[in-house]
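tool_call: predict_structure(chain=1)
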Amino acid sequence: MCIPYSGLVLAPQYGKGLLVVSPVSKAEAPVPDESETGQVLDQEQLTTLLRGFRDLAIYPIVAIAAFTGARRNEILALRWSDFDPGAKTLRITRSLEETKTYGRRFKEPKTRRGNRTIAIDHGLAALLSAEHEKYSRLAPGVADGAVVDLSLVKLPEGALIFPAPPADAGEFDFTRPRDARNITKLFSRRATKLGFPKLRFHDLRGTHGTLLLDAGVPVHVVAARCGHDPAVLLGIYAKRTKKADTSPAAVIRTLSEHALGST
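tool_result:
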């Protein structure tokens, strides 16, 4: 059995009763894949990728991942009550998990950072509003194109933004979550077809954070947006960014030109 170094040092003191509660028990366990560098897309590559998903039903899911940095299972747990089209925000308060005993169910974030409200742009808000209109027509059986006041349609309590499609000709359940693994498979299949064979769905999260940091957005702002620890985010960013070697040189060059004068 592999014992973490900190646990090995503190174990004797804890066992002898010198420590009532082991400090190690309060440590945050790393999230799987969170520490991996993965593949980071630049703006042009990200645009190419997203355009290649527009004809698929999972396009809005991919777009949210790319433009919010939310995790796959956080996105699949989003409810319409989490979306504020007026304020253009998405609220993350839960995540989807697959269990052997209970099947698919929702859970609260492991840390306080996981609970967050993310600002989104007009384009993403419009995309989500279009999804809402689709389900608002589906609930009462209103045909596409029919002129009705959809504001009068109320979706069921707890309705998911991305519910699972009905099996065969079964009744549509607005609260039944999708299979996260199928989303990953669909994403990988299309990404490979578009020329990104090694790209993971989780890499959209890393791409989002890296592009924001490269653009000069403060690390604490990006960390709060992604539900990350700022220190951990900086460590990951240092491995991901392509500007790390050139940015300091450019800044120093500008400073020296002003201070010393160009030659």
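agent: The chain has two domains: 1-30, 31-252. Proceeding to next step.
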